Amino acid sequence: MRLVVVFLWMVVGTVLSLETSAGSLYDEHFPPLHPNCTQSLTDLILLRQEVQLKELKEEEKASSRILRQIADILTDVRNSLNRTSISCPGNFINFGDTCLYLAKDTDVTWEASRVYCQGLGGDLAVFRDANEFAEALGYVKGSGLIGTTDVWVGGNDLSLEGEWVWISGEDMPRGTPFWGHYNNAREPTGGISQNCAFLKGQDGFTIHDAPCDWKRKPLCQMKHI
Ligand SMILES: [Ca+2]
Question: Mean pLDDT throughout 161-175?
């Protein structure tokens, strides 16, 4: 009987010991959840969503940028097609929104040049800005003229000495790059004896003033038809 009691005591002791040991092992490998664990998990999910949203926004920005670039390219293509589809009559050549024609075989006075150009449906050329002036100069210089050739354009101070205006009614610009030099002085320098504007070949086809009854070649201009 005593042996049985001792044996049972040993079994109970072993079981209690095993339970204590198993509890320690469980706690060691599966620590209890931290009170903030749920909060941390939520924060992690939110952070991940925030990153994904940021990436989506960046992709959206890139897509918008590409669409804008495509739109710009299409606009350029359309403008280019419009330009090439614009026609100029006869010997006129397209420059911007106007047509130019240099009558290389005609030498007439300034007034006669206007009549000549008007007979073709235009008038003497005027330049609204430096770009138009540069385009016209490129055309004149590339026309195969000798360097001493002079060309009438549509500017004058016939109405009021010193008040240079285009035949279209606008004031003519002064200085560079339009007007050239004569005897180291900036044109116009001719006073009351020189009231009509021409492109002087010997001065890089810049504008000079001259007596209106001199004979030069007309640079005609007309709007697109
Ligand atoms: Ca004058």
Answer: 96
